[in-house]
Structure formats: C-alpha cells, structure tokens
Amino acid sequence: YARAAIPAYWIINLVDRQIEVYTDPSGPVGLPTYRQLKNSRIGEDVTILIAGLPPIAITAADLLP
Length: 65
What we know:
Layout: E1 8-13, E2 18-25, E3 34-41, E4 45-48, E5 56-59
C-alpha cells in the first residue's frame, strides 16, 4: 500500500484489541513503508480524515468486538 501511495492503511487488530492506523506513505522506493503509526485501544479515539471534510472521531471500542 505504501508503494502505491495509499494515504492511510487501517488494521483492526482483533488479537491485540487495537486499531492500527498507518499514514504518511513513502511511495515507490526500494523498501516502501509508512512513516507514521497510531495505535488506538479501547477507550481511545480514532480519527477518520477524508479530504474536504472535517475530521470524524470515533472510539476504538466501536470498531472492536
């Protein structure tokens, strides 16, 4: 995803009960990666950013079983 410059990549990690949000892709380089990682656990907010819209905050608990 980072190689294709996908701006954000989310993992709903059921094992560790957290939401992993990867942002700031390096793009098409030798070893593509995301430069930013934010982990959110139960009780913490996850912010959804969509170009042209105000940020939307939801709790991680709303996404985890």
